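User: Modeling request: complex.
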Amino acid sequence: MSDTNIPVRATEASDSREGCREVIPTLARIGDKWTVMVVGSLSNGPMRYNQIARLIEGISQRMLTLTLKSLEQDGLVSRTMYPTIPPRVDYELTDLGRSLIVPLRSLHSWAVEHQPAMLAAREEFAKREQQTGLRQTRFTDPK
Amino acid sequence: MSDTNIPVRATEASDSREGCREVIPTLARIGDKWTVMVVGSLSNGPMRYNQIARLIEGISQRMLTLTLKSLEQDGLVSRTMYPTIPPRVDYELTDLGRSLIVPLRSLHSWAVEHQPAMLAAREEFAKREQQTGLRQTRFTDPK
DNA sequence: CTGCATCCACCGGGATACTG
DNA sequence: CAGTATCCCGGTGGATGCAG
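Assistant: Request completed. Predicted assembly structure:
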């Protein structure tokens, strides 16, 4: 028995491999910082445009508008306009949008739990860098 | 009864708001498509550089190298070099890296389950766009 | 085979100014 | 208040070439 070299657990292989391809588009849509921030803000209930803007602080009008619009397109956020003067617009998570909070929480847990480990790993890596840097393999002269 | 307008569930408010800030750095690191693809590929066991490259197909050397290096920095992937000729390098998920699969799965589930809903929402939105487009509010003339 | 270095095109996103 | 339109810069990432 035993073949040449391919130890793939074929059972799960395609699952994990193909599986991750499916996450990409979703991740591209909902994975950027502004989207996460906006969804996070709206998770407390409906909000007006400027409320969100002030809450997030650092986001540009442009990005807020774009983010909200794309969220609306994807059916994650609903937009309600009151044609009063001055105008008022409320944004609110849809059921779909709220359902997104679940995986987001999962990510959040992981982040909180493992952030320290990652930072530690970074520093450790930096040190190793320096050490091996002494006998660094330099092909071309540093300019 | 009923007050003016602020229905905030203050209990969870800061949690959700502050909470999402913590996810940002993590998301920035592990949230891009290449990282996800690489982690997904490695979830089946250790792999060599070119194995990954061929498996992912579409990734440039540059991006693969950069992604792997940053993953190594963060302690998510371990790198083992065999100074043979030709050289051989194995990449493998660390425990930390494997732990990442959990939230990734969560995201994957959500993606698979709600992708259709999002697509549907998109098309619906496109239609509404057209309709309201007739009485579109155009301030400046389109050049 | 594994990987760095360089050049370069693209566009994400900030600042600003203007409209309804 | 709630956006829209424009300019513009920095970073992301692809293609190529070269070295251990």
